[in-house]
Amino acid sequence: MLSRQQKKVLVTIGKFVLPVVAAFIVLMVSLAVKTIQDLTHPPRTKYAVSLADYELIGKTITKQDVSWSLKGGGEANGWLFQGPKGAPLIVLSHSYGQNMVDQISLAVLLYDSGYHVLLYDLRGHGESKVEKTSLGDDEVDDLSAAIEHIKTLKDATGEPLINKDQIGLFGVSIGGYASLVAASKDPSIKAVAVDAVYPNVKRYLEIKVKNFSSFSNPLLLYFIDLGMKFNFSKYSNTSAESSLGNLTETKQLYIIGKDTRELQITTSDIFSKAIGQKQNVEVPKSRISILYKADQDVYDPVVQTFFLDALPPKVDLPVPDASASTANPTTQPPTEEKK
To answer: What is the rounded CA–CA span in Å between residue 300 and residue 305?
Structure first.
């Protein structure tokens, strides 16, 4: 039994401690709400380059504006660069905080190589009509819907525009995660290249929270996890790591950027667990950030070489040397510094 004096001490301590604990919990909940809002609503970036920039240097690109319905409601839009009839399709999915045009140098390089290329804005990015990103879970369905829509397109003769059984995917961070999971569900996807990828959305959330908040701690992460479950019905329902077992027949490229810190580790770890036809390449800079032209000239040919080998187009083009320091200069607008 506690003495009267001991009870008095406990009551006194409780009067001071409980308010502090309650205030700390309120602070963590408030930070969790703010962090979720910031993470799922990245700043919308404007298109820094247009196809008119390429026209200035005499490059004409056959482009079709496309749109498709998303599972659960909403609509997505993109640009389809139309290659030769019956050529493979490569879908480019950009990184967190970017937009589809940030991949345009790579898109043009692949288009010049004989592919159909689809660029689109991920939900919550660019000009997407969807308000917020789910950091990967919903983006898987969005990507699959895009592929299914492009498969329905016909050319002027009524024939399928693309080779429906020869699809390639490239993606960075959220785009890379969605690409891996989507590829595991669709046998028509024969090759996938990813950069700065992560095993599951919860792990990516932990990485982003550390970058967003100096108050990162287990309690904050707990409340953020609860908030994500409340906001997104599919939260943590997908897993790139679990999808690896279904990629045994899919050629895989894992690009490891030396500047991506924790995502360099997660990408290397996923590569080590992948089975089947896989390869990895280290590059000085990942496409997780906006690349200057000199860095694009190192990075983009790595992706081009992979797809030319893994998913050859109909046209007979030489496979470039991946170690080359420069790409085709006609793929870069002279007026652009960062794209």
So the answer is: 9
Which run of H or of E encompasses 227? helix 218-231
3-state SS assignment for residue 113? coil
Class of residue 156 by CB neighbours under 10 A (exposed 0-12, middle 13-18, buried 19+): exposed
Tell me if 339 is assigned to some domain. Answer: no
Domain check: are 292 and 322 in the same one? yes
pTM confidence score: 0.87
- What single string gives the DSSP state of each residue in 3-43? -HHHHHHHHHHHHHHHHHHHHHHHHHHHHHHHHHHHHHSPP
Note whether residue 303 is domain-resident.
yes
Domain hosting residue 300, numbered range = 49-200+238-331
CA 122 to chain centre: 8
Q: Are residues 59 and 85 in the same domain?
A: yes
Examine residue 281 and state whether it is found in any structural domain, yes or no.
Answer: yes
Q: Which helix (H) or strand (E) holds 105?
A: helix 104-112
Taking only the tens of pLDDT, the chain with its 339 residues reads: 667 776 666 667 766 677 777 887 888 889 899 999 999 999 999 999 888 888 888 888 999 999 999 988 889 999 999 999 999 999 999 999 999 999 999 999 999 999 999 999 999 999 999 999 999 999 999 999 999 999 999 988 899 999 999 999 999 999 999 999 999 999 999 999 999 999 999 999 999 998 877 667 888 899 999 999 999 999 989 999 999 999 999 999 999 999 998 999 999 999 999 999 999 999 999 999 999 899 999 999 999 999 999 999 975 444 555 444 333 433 333 333 333
* Co-location of 92 and 229 in the same domain: no
